[in-house]
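Technical note accompanying the year-one report. For the benefit of new consortium partners, we illustrate the data format agreed upon in the data management plan: each record pairs a sequence with a structure-token string. No post-processing was applied to the example shown here.
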Amino acid sequence: MFDLLQRPYIPPREVTTFSSLSAVSSTFGWAVPDQGMVAAQFAECLNAVFGIILARIGDTPGGIVLREVTNDDLDVEPGLGNGGGDTIYRLKEGNERFMITDVNNPQTSAMAQSTLFTMMDQFGNTGAINFFNHVPGGCNVLFMDGHVDWIPYVPPAPGQDNTVSMDLGAKQPVLPSIAGIIGLFNSLYS
């Protein structure tokens, strides 16, 4: 579950700063953009998943390892976990309580479920308009409480692509910094 995707105090980071993500992308020949930026919490999650997979690549069939990884919480760099901690919790009912900052307010639990996304349409950036399910660009996003919102894709301002300010004006989870990393996976099928 991602709750720190669009925080001004946690700007996007270069893809190359995540060692496991870089190793997997070079192994599969993914075209990682030079100085490509990605949302820090999202990339830290992928980095943790790929780190576990790389460590166990020869021990167990890949599908079993992937199933085990997605069924567990992930230990990440302090400050990038849920609620600013060092753990990204797997998606399950009740984990939204780790995102609540005002525990004395019962309405915050309901608000937490309505702000945590669980699934969305496919999208991409840098010429990947064909990956959008809805052209000219945007996604239907399913949230944990069951409601769906349409969130338009706001591309980076001119000259801001692959900078720490590339997500300004966009709404999570439909962020240009996430679209770049999704583009890596989409390149496998294009």
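Partners are asked to follow this layout when depositing records. The radius of gyration is 17 Å.
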